[in-house]
Amino acid sequence: MDVIFKPFTPCGTVKAPPSKSDVHRAIICAALSKGVCTISPVALSEDIKATIRCVESLGASSKIDGGVLTIDGSRMFENKTARLDCGESGSTLRFMIPVAAAGGVTATFNGNGRLPERPIGIYTEALPKAGVNFDRDSGLPLTVSGKLKGGVFRVPGNVSSQFISGLLFALPLLKHDSDIILTSPVQSVGYINMTIRTMAHFGIEVDATDTGWHIRGCQHYIPSDYKTDGDWSQAAFYMVAGAIGGEVTVDGVNTDSAQGDRKIAELLRDFGAEIIQDASKITVRKSELSAVNIDAKNIPDLVPVLAVCAAFAKGTTRIYDAERLRIKESDRLKTTAELLSKLGAKVTGLEDGLEIEGAAKLNGGKANGHNDHRIVMSAAVCAACCDGEIICSDALSVNKSYPDFYEDYAKAGGKAEFKE
Known about the structure:
Radius of gyration: 21 Å
């Protein structure tokens, strides 16, 4: 399905949706607590549904009522053979592989979209040394068997923080202590800090070391109710819309959040946008924007919408250290450049990023959403400064992370019409 984004002036107030990253982590910790926990608020995006399916496949149960998710982990790991459908969620796949192995489950992982292409070699290299067997030809399906044992896990930090988070979830359950030792500098450290913070809420201790983290064995997740953060990475779309074309307030964002994507406020200030912020609300108002250089090492999810902001900032913005975006739902460096170029922007692709020359307006036109939620939502933001409408494919891909996007987009003044 296509969506037509019409030119608009951003205005209004939007409530930030629950952080998808936060909810993933809370679901897993709740299931591992072997008790009954509530998590709220929760939005049932396709990725979150995938994580719920996977913990249920391992024996947990769940119910949702008015945005409150209840997880009962009392039967977690009772199923010793399971099929885990991860949908298109890389987080789900990478979090659940070591979790299933810690429970001694023979688990077959399936996925669709680009998920079978996304790398998991860190696990297939590190986990066999710790008692885990892998059976696959290539990609998915992947069968994991054996029981994970504690010890030393040497992993690179520059591929995806999701591998480190997956190990962090699993290692406290083991009989012996473990150490995660980084073999390269860590990227997206904010997501690791979020994992550790969520685990602490459920009673698990993780100690930072000079080379990584030390995790004591024989720990127990403690049942606890959990309140989720608003999602800074989703709030960023409305904040950029305000910066380039009007004034938008986003409510429900926590300035003390462990989410690395809260850096969007600082970056928009650097561009020159007017920012008014308190503990849970942020207003972004259009101002004259100027180009900046952006190190995207710890904020990869922000790159597409930051590129939109750069397209309307005077001068040439350079976004670098973002090569990991090539293995997301799409090659996001390529598809972001294509989106902006189709609308009339001047974009140069780099090996690890993008260079974007700013302009006062773009033309509008046809855009390929590449079945990537962040590309489609970035196209929606572009409409705030386009002379003509934008026709974008794959309208429903936003359901992967943000099923209420179009409703909230309208609250910020956006105009979207659907076309079969």
